[in-house]
Structure formats: C-alpha cells, structure tokens
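Researcher: Quick test of sequence recovery. Tokens follow.
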C-alpha cells in the first residue's frame, strides 16, 4: 500500500513538474509574442522628430528654411509643401516632423523652392540627408551653402502661357514626370490651326525661375512669345518634360551603365517609350498638334541632349527634328566618345533636321564625366566637350549633309555650359528650326 501511494505521489509530482514547465514555457512564449506585438505597435506609431539646422552666413535674413523629403509630413519632395523651420536665439533653425517610428527617411533643406536648395563645398550637389526615426533622437544638419548663394526670392513665378500637368505617370518608369506645355499666343483664337511640337528634356528649367535649377530659367516661353508675336517664327507648342530623381538613369542609353548606386540601370529605352507611347499620344489628343515626324522635334541640353538624340534614333518614325545645346557625347566613364553610336547610320542622320551648339569654353568642370577633380580646371579637359561637338559635326559632313540646310551648328564665343548660357541660345535655336513662314498654317482638319 505504501509503495502504491508513493508511486502515485511520484507520478503526481512528475505531472505537476511537467505542467509547471509547460506553464513557464507558455508564459515565456506569450510574453515574447506580447513584446513582439508591442514592438510592432511601437514601430508603426507616429512620433515627433526634431530637425535642427545650422545655416550658412549667406542665408537671407527675411527668408524661411524648410525641410522637404520622402514622407507626406515632409512634403513628399514637393518644395511648396515642405515643413517650415523656426529660427532660434542661438542662430540655428529647428522644427518637428511627425514620422513613423523605426522607418528610414530622406530629406533636403531649401528656402521654399528647389531653386534655393542647399549645396555643398565648391557648389557641389549634396546627397539627401537620411535618418531612421527614433523617440527623442534629433537630427542635426549643417548647410554649407545655397545653390543661389542667397540671392533669390523663392516662389517667383515667371512662366508665360504655360499649362502644367503635374506628376504625369508612366507604366514603365519608377517615377512620374511633371510636364509643362507652352501654347503659342494665337492658340485660343485660331481654333482651326495645328502646330508643330518640340519635346524638351529638363523641362523644369525652360519656363519658370520657381522650378528651374539655381533659379536660372531658359526664358523659352518669353523668347518664343516675342518671336511669334513679331511673326519671326510660326506658332509652336513646346512640351517641357521635367526630370526627376532618376534623371541619370533615364537619360543614359543602354550599354553606357552608370556607377551611381541610385541609378544602377540605363533607362533611356524606357524613357523613350514613355515619351512616344504615353506622353505624345496624350499631347496629340489634348492639343492641336501636327503629329507627323516632320513637325515633331525633340531636344535638350547636356545629357538631356544625349537622350534626345538616342530617342530620335530609336524612334525614327516619330521624331524628324533634333535640337541639342552643348551635347553630352561621352559615356559615364568619361573615356568613350559616343559619336559612332549616332552617326554610323548615315541614312538616319540625313533624314532629320538638326540644331547643334557648343560654347567655346566647352563643358566646364563636369565634362567629361569622371574627370579627376585635380584636372577639372585644365582648359584642355573642359574643352573636350567642344572637341566632341566638332567631331559630331565632322561626321555630319562626312555623311554628305549640308550646313545651313540639313543642320545648323553654332559655336558660341566664350559660351559656357549652364542654364544662363542655354538661355541665350533659345532664339537662334527657334529661328533655325522654325524660320518665318506665311501666316497660314495647317488646319485642324488635316496635316
């Protein structure tokens, strides 16, 4: 009997031990799951993050600093929706943004528009500031300089007769493009008229100081308006396609891959498909264009000119006119000239009308790409862009093209490689591509 009782007691003890172990393990697992749930809850909650900015001495005393970045509460990269900062007694600027705990964000500092964005030493571009949101952890930023060196008044609108189409989407590109459409002065009164169209890259720089790089616009609209009103050129519709954060990739033809980790793939084919299959059909359906290739031009400056040449070559039935200011004719490694890629097909080259220009000062410190900074100031290095442009024109001549008839080439004395320089070349470009014609243009009933 004693053995039986002892045995039962032992079994009971072992059972209780097993239940106890299960209970401990169950509670540990439950506690761990609860902790994970709390962590997930904390990770998903909105928290305030303070951003503190030390501004350079060139900051205008009557202007405000803004944080603009990758979250809705930081404007989603729309400068006009950025978060304003407050100037503190110690001279710093500070503000608070509500963001999601544990999530990484990127931003830049500006003074209300992208033409007043921060810059680095020697006027270099600066990468986005990045941070991962965490309770009680401020983000400190030092702004070295402003792209305009504090000389501009933000939000100055200077566009004339320009219609914006914000965030035009594409099925084949990662990011949308803002599109700006300039209409000729008689567009609303000449309802039966159709117009040639030119598609320009880096379109944010064409019409408006408020959107242009460094606040230096091309004044494309003012120049076209003046020439058209004076009847020095026919009416033309100008479509400015703004760039975005994928500019380097979208403007790089395949086979010329880039080393920039943000733009690992050449996307010029996809960009061309966007222009031809998505944007142009929209423009042709909404506006009274002359959609045939003879009246459809494409153009740009620097890499915008490079991609324009490439898209024209790969879509020969769409574009019959090409306009390039200061062409970028090197691969990203800076060594390989790209003229053969465009001039080997002489039949294609000769089917287009061309406008090309280059300043005698060449491409400046940014050309050719990948230049050793120690050699960037060497005039011979800077003038390699001029050498490349001359090689392109020599290829035109070898193809049997006639200067003044098949192409116009302008070599500008003391011409530079920047927006102001290209501003001065808009008039000769328009006069070359669209010479004065009789007032009658094709009507909306036909091409």
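Model:
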């Amino acid at each position: 009997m004693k053995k039986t009782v002892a045995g039962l007691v032992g079994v009971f003890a072992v059972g209780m031990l097993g239940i106890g172990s299960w209970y401990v393990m169950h509670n540990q697992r439950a506690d761990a799951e609860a902790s994970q749930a709390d962590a997930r809850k904390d990770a998903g909650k909105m928290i305030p993050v303070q951003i503190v900015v030390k501004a350079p001495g060139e900051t205008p005393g009557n202007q405000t600093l803004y944080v603009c970045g990758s979250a809705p509460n930081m404007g989603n990269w729309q400068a006009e929706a950025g978060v304003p900062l407050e100037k503190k007694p110690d001279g710093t600027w500070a503000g608070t943004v509500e963001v999601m705990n544990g999530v990484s964000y990127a931003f830049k500092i500006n003074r209300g528009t992208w033409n007043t964005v921060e810059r680095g030493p020697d006027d270099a571009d600066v990468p986005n500031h990045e941070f991962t949101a965490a309770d009680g952890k401020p983000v400190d930023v030092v702004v070295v300089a402003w792209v305009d060196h504090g000389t501009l008044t933000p939000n100055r609108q200077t566009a004339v007769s320009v219609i914006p189409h914000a965030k035009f989407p594409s099925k084949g590109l990662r990011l949308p493009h803002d599109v700006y459409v300039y209409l000729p002065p008689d567009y609303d009164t000449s309802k039966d008229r159709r117009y040639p169209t030119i598609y320009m890259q880096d379109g944010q720089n064409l019409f408006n100081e408020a959107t242009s790089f460094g606040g230096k616009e091309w004044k494309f609209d003012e120049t076209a308006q003046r020439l058209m009103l004076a009847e020095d050129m026919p009416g033309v519709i100008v479509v400015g396609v703004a760039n975005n954060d994928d500019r380097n990739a979208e403007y790089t033809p395949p086979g010329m891959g880039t080393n920039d980790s943000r733009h690992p793939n050449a996307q010029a084919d996809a960009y061309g498909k966007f222009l031809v299959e998505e944007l142009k059909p929209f423009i042709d359906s909404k506006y009274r264009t002359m959609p045939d290739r003879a009246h459809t031009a494409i153009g740009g400056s620097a890499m915008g000119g490079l991609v324009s040449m490439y898209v024209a070559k790969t879509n020969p039935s769409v574009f019959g006119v090409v306009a390039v200011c200061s062409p970028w004719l090197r691969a990203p490694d800076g060594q390989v000239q790209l003229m053969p890629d465009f001039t080997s097909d002489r039949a294609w080259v000769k089917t287009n009308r061309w406008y090309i220009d280059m300043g005698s000062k060449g491409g400046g410190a940014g050309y050719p790409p990948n230049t050793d900074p120690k050699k960037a100031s060497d005039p011979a290095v800077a003038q390699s862009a001029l050498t490349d442009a001359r090689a392109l024109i020599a290829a035109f001549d070898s193809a049997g093209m006639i200067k003044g008839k098949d192409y116009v080439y302008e070599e500008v004395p003391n011409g530079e490689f920047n927006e102001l320089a290209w501003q001065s070349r808009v008039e000769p470009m328009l006069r070359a591509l669209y010479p004065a014609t009789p007032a009658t243009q094709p009507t909306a009933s036909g091409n």
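The longest strand covers residues 46-54.
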